[in-house]
Amino acid sequence: MSSLASLAQTVLEMPDPSGKSLLTRKHAALWQSGQISSVGQGHPPDRPARPAKPALMPPTAMPRRSKAGLKGRIALLHALAHIELNAIDLAWDIIARFTENDLPKAFYDDWVQVALDEALHYDALAELLAGLGASYGDLPAHDGLWQAAEKTRNDLMDRLALVPMTLEARGLDTTPATMKHLERHGHAEVIPVLARILEDETAHVAAGTRWFGYLCGLKGLDPAQTYKSRLTPQFPHGPKPPFNHEARLKAGQTPDFYEWAI
Ligand SMILES: [Fe+2]
Ligand SMILES: [Fe+2]
Q1: Domain definitions of the chain by residue range
Q2: Ligand 2 is a single-atom ion; what residues have CB below 5 A from it?
Q3: If both were cysteines, with which of 32, 118, 194, 253 could 248 make a disulfide (CB 3.0 to 4.6 Å apart)?
Q4: Contact assessment for residue 112 and residue 28, using Cβ atoms and an 8 Å cutoff
């Protein structure tokens, strides 16, 4: 009988993006229907398997993304698809990596749902790319998200602070402006997909913030202060404004988490 951690590992070891997404949907169904109920022990790879293309570059070496016309739209969708593909792996990695932490079943329920959402986001973006005659892998992509995973692989609180509470929360801040830009330029077909992503990502930030709060509660720590101290090595000045206060509040983040200048 498989465990959730071993299922997570097979997704992480799958190089093909649509295969990764398909396995995610299958494995999420096994967990959510109760056919698999043991978490087991994980041995996640240091890096998830990825296809030969796109070439991965350090974030600082990425060529400037064109914003105009069809090229610009393809570049945007490609960048978002890359984020979602990383997000699938990040969700399975948090499941497989922290099996020693004695967490309640609800923790795994949340991250399985996150993995499933990310797979649906990836598929929706891949479909939009295909509609433009492009596909994931056509353009270079940055390796920043996995670098964040590597920096926080030894500590669940560090991982929650950096990945869902900061990097995914950044998506809440930037997505409304991206939607407005696309609307202004007549790309209405992308808007429902981004609206769905924004709603789901709010739930992901909420899950990260809630579990961070849970772990703080076990240790008698103040969540906002602890978040600041955990994030400081990576973001000495805190998250970057402007902030989507409404979405962050929905996700359980009051300004004392992210407005460090005040
Ligand atoms: Fe997503
Ligand atoms: Fe997410």
Answers
A1: 4-258
A2: 87, 168, 201, 204
A3: 253
A4: yes
